[in-house]
Amino acid sequence: MIKPNKITKPDSKAFIKNLVTNHNYVFSLVVMTIIGFIANPNFLRFTNIMTLMKSASILGVLALGMTLVILIGQIDLSVGSMLALTGALAVGVYNSTYSIILTLIFCLGFGFLLGLFNGFFVGKLRIAGFVVTLATLAGYRSLTVQIGQGGPLLVDVEPYYASLRNIGYGKFFGIPNLVLIFAFATLLIWILLTKTKIGRYIYAVGSNEKATMLTGVNVDRIKILVFALSGMLAGLAAFMYISQMGAVDSATAGRGLETDAIAAVAIGGVSMSGGRGFVQGTFFGAIILFSINNILTALGIPAFVNDLIKGGLILIAVVLQQLIRKSNKD
Q: Which stretches does DSSP call E strand in the chain?
């Protein structure tokens, strides 16, 4: 007599543990949604959600690159300056060609080269990413200020309104183009991290660099590639920036975005010590970060409190990661 197969019940404890350990950004998202709805009954309306996501898109793309860098146990402080320098030069490219495609290709390529420069020092010369990118943060910003003479670089008005502005303000079936770009970039990074050998190597380098090196993986090359990809994503963010703003202020464009990008990654549950985390967490982390502004405005709280909250969120996220890691070991 054939015995029927036993139907195993889903292990709710294992599910909750996995949620807390790997996807704790879900709790932040739920809490922010509840607070946002209490503060503003229109918080969950489609138009408001799309506005939030659009506002978070440029930062979110920068944070995707930061996610890759943090996953290998490094940090990239130059993402805001790379955005500014790439954007400043891209304005000139667009004004010379009036071609959206050529401007996009330039942004991606030049951003890749800037990141490659960072990666060379980190991968080949074994200098800590924090030190290298702290130097290039200042260097890239200085070059940007020199190009713009301390002022703004403007996209030519008529061609901007005729074509480029449609990227920054256009919609596709009610969804802003910038949101679609952010979502597509997130999907590509998710595929890279979960479906390719390079993705597995990125996690391995962040988890245990020495052990990964002993398995024959070229760790230096992975580091260089990751920093180059971070630069390319900063270039994409620069393209999105000029399409929305129509200008690049050489002194202020992208300034401080490196901190926001780190905050988005931390809120998204990516381990700040490397080796653990998911890119979808960063996607929601950027949205959560921008929803704070929305909620503060609805509650009538001064905007300067936002930086205090962001700093607190980074600290809380890191402390929770340490507690979760300790409980897993126990």
A: 152-154, 171-172, 175-176, 247-249
**Which residue in 153, 324, 108, 124 sits closest to 100, CA to CA?**
108
Pick from 243, 230, 60, 44: nearest CA to 137 = 230
Strand ranges inside 66-184, DSSP E: 152-154, 171-172, 175-176
Q: Which two tokens stand for residue 324?
A: 């979760």
Q: Any bridge partners for residue 248, and if so which?
A: 153
- Residue extents of the structural domains in the chain: 44-329
pLDDT band at 276, cuts 50/70/90?
Answer: confident
pLDDT in tens, 142-191: 999 999 988 899 998 888 887 888 999 999 998 999 999 999 999 999 99
Quote the mean pLDDT of the chain. 87
Q: How far is CA 143 from CA 76, 77, 149, 234, in A?
A: 18, 16, 10, 16
The distance from CA 273 to its chain's CA centroid, rounded to whole angstroms, is 17
In CATH terms, the fold of domain 44-329 is: ABC transporter involved in vitamin B12 uptake, BtuC (1.10.3470)
Beta pairing partners, 53 = none
Tens-digit pLDDT profile for residues 277-329: 889 999 998 998 888 877 877 777 776 777 777 777 777 777 776 676 666 66
**Rounded CA separation 129/6 (Å):** 52
Rg value, the chain, Cα: 21
